[in-house]
Design brief:
Layout: E1 24-28, H1 32-45, E2 49-54, E3 57-62, E4 65-70, E5 90-94, H2 97-106, E6 113-114, E7 130-134, E8 140-145
Parallel strand pairs: 1-4, 5-8
Antiparallel strand pairs: 2-3, 3-4, 6-7, 7-8
C-alpha cells in the first residue's frame, strides 16, 4: 500500500493569480499515453488535478497554474534532451522528507528513474533534500522537500 501523498486538491475556481506567476508550462512529448501516465501519477500525487483532455494532450492544474503534455505533429525529435538549449527540468515542492521518500520509492513503477542515486537525497548539495527523476522521454523533475531538517 502506497501512502497517500496528495495535498488538498486545487480549488475549483482558484484565487486571482499572483502578478508574474506562471500561467502554464507546455511540454511537447513523443508519446502522449506514456507522458500522461507518468506525469499524471506524479502531478496528481502532489495534489494537481486533471484539467483538460483532448486527442493530442492532457493538462493538470494546481492553483492558477497548469501543466500541459502534448504530442504535437510538429515535433522534430523523439526524445527530450535537457542538456540542449531549452527546458532543463521542472522543480516542484514536496511537503516533507517522508513524502519525498515515498515518491522516490513509488516512481519506478510509473516510469521514472532516480538520477544521481549515489548522491541522493543530497545531489543538490548538503543543505538540500531532493530527488531528481527522469522519465523515459528524457524529462527531468526535481522534487524538493520543504522541511529543511
Amino acid at each position: 500500500m502506497v501512502a497517500d501523498l496528495r495535498t488538498r486538491p486545487a480549488a475549483a475556481s482558484p484565487a486571482r493569480p499572483v502578478h508574474g506567476s506562471p500561467h502554464h508550462v507546455e511540454l511537447w512529448v513523443p508519446d502522449l499515453d506514456r507522458a500522461a501516465a507518468g506525469f499524471g501519477w506524479l502531478l496528481e500525487t502532489l495534489g494537481w488535478t486533471p484539467f483538460q483532455h483532448w486527442d493530442a494532450g492532457r493538462s493538470w492544474r494546481l492553483g492558477t497554474t497548469y501543466l500541459v503534455v502534448e504530442q504535437s505533429p510538429a515535433l522534430t525529435a523523439t526524445r527530450h534532451d535537457r542538456c540542449r538549449p531549452g527546458l532543463n527540468h521542472l522543480a516542484l515542492h514536496v511537503r516533507d522528507r517522508p513524502a519525498l521518500d515515498a515518491l522516490v520509492a513509488e516512481a519506478p513503477r510509473h516510469g521514472w528513474t532516480l538520477l544521481f542515486p549515489d548522491r541522493h537525497p543530497h545531489a543538490g548539495g548538503p543543505d538540500t533534500y531532493a530527488a531528481y527523476l527522469e522519465n523515459p522521454d528524457g524529462f527531468e523533475v526535481e522534487l524538493v522537500a520543504d522541511d529543511p531538517a
